[in-house]
Model the fold of this input.
Amino acid sequence: MTGNELRRRYLQFFQAKKHQLIPSASLVPENDATTLFTGSGMQPLVPYLLGKEHPLGQRLVNAQKAFRSQDIEEVGDNRHTTFFEMLGNWSLGDYFKREQLTWFFQFLINEVGLDPKRLYVTVFAGDEKFGLARDHQSAEIWQELFARQGIDAPIVAQPLNGLNQGRIFYYPAEKNWWSRAGEPGKMPLGEPGGPDSELFYDFGPDLGLHENSAWRNQACHPNCDCGRFLEIGNSVFMQYLKTKNGFTLLPKKNVDFGGGLERILAAANNEPDIFKTDLLWPIVSRLMDLSARSYVDQDQFAMRVIADHVRASVMLIADGVVPARKDRGYFVRRLLRRAIRFGHQLNIQGHFLSQLVPTIVEIYQAHYPDLSDKLPLITQVITDEEIKFHQALDRGMKKIAQLGKIDAQVSFYLYETFGFPFELTAEIAQEHGWTIDQKMLTKLKKAHQQQSRTASAGKFKGGLVDRNQTTTKFHTATHLLHAALRQVLGNQVEQRGSHITRERLRFDFSFHRALTDEEITRVEQLVNQWITADLTVYHQILPKEVALKAGALALFSEKYPDKVSVYTIGHDLKDDYISKEFCGGPHVTHTAEIGAPLKIKKEKSSAAGVRRIYMSYAS
Done:
């Protein structure tokens, strides 16, 4: 089975169950200041999971692009990637456990063709401390589903006792509970959450506990990490609300399902190495051509890293993220430079990353047609970064010569300043007989990784930092700022992102040069003029084509559903308005609520062809 076929079958299966198809959101979150990247299918839907009405109704389905920067160091095994696609379906207060588990099981058996004897599931074991009961209902539903396939499915209360005793396993909250804050004890008051049920595919005992395995003396079970089992889907049942009196049932229960496209595809083909699926293998094949080496041993590890990192970079660049020293761009730069390093390990000469781009675009262009249009841009960005990194290598080598040594601190300095991969620094040190204190280097790495997770992982809070009155005011102000920039600079200006806190708003927009002092002053004047005018902020749910014909700006038109949320700011909806945009964020009802005056505190370059404005209250 191919990736395109699997994606299509999944979407059609749930559309037949009356789910409305929603397009993939951008990898750059819209109206979400808590995380740098879209890391799951549920992330763009958090406001609706928390009770906001979705324009398309209560049943939704999609295939969502996702990127998780915290997994960079994990790439190289047979299952981890930084970029992936999540197949997702949601019930917003409609169906619940029985429908969800039944449909997903049917999809895997009837559409994907998996052998039900290869499937194992986990459910929530309960938490007596918080009065949360075991999820007996899900366990019993799973038993019924397996029984229909002629499979006895005993339930195991202690999974570490081993596989032979069961097929359905109870796990504690650390494994089978979901909330934005984590386990029940970490949840704040007013936070929703609930048990989840994960499904695993068994590739067989030959893949698992071998003599070199770290788990060779432990009993094998779905969560043992021995390599035998692959999690392919997780159904979250959001049914509880944490209150000062404990956990109470939500009036509306939601289902949030996510399944990895690459992982389900690997199971469909009974292939434990996801890099051998058609979503990644063409990239590996191209690498074998470029390197004249085979996909084995250490070369296998290097090829996996390169294939993943360049694929992720292509997708991020297509969504507007370019290499930079910080924020989102830092991760693109890190991915590309790490890929270059592993290319050197394969003895690939010259600038080779850009040669992989057409292969990646060909894999994904059927489902993401915008990639073909962006092929020249993506290729140029990657080529430029390769050139810059080679220049950085020259500067780094001069710095090493100046210092006359490489220790742990120097190794980390070279990594942070010049983008030197640690492996490269280690090789140079070995050539000169220098010793790097690995414990110290590990300590520095861990501190850096923790900082990266806090910049990129985040906790989903439903859009803005906290959706309080100030952030809501600033969010509405971004619409006015966008309109003012287009009026002063021209309609070529388009929003490229925003980040809003209680202290200020940050707004990125497309423009080719720095603004003059006069232009900045004029933009400020317009924004404050519209705030003082106390314009009405209108909200409508419209068919997308109707909204576009009415003049609404669709900043990322390819990812909006057939019905959209539109905010219009002005004296009326038709003719006398200042701003009309697709938007799902919170807003004030009249511009005077924002307060005045607002002032542009800084204007600078954010990336090539993108400017950044910081704006806050003047006082």
Notes: The chain is about 40% helix and 20% strand. The chain has a mean pLDDT of 87. Residues 469-617 form a domain with the Threonyl-tRNA Synthetase; Chain A, domain 2 fold (CATH 3.30.980.10).
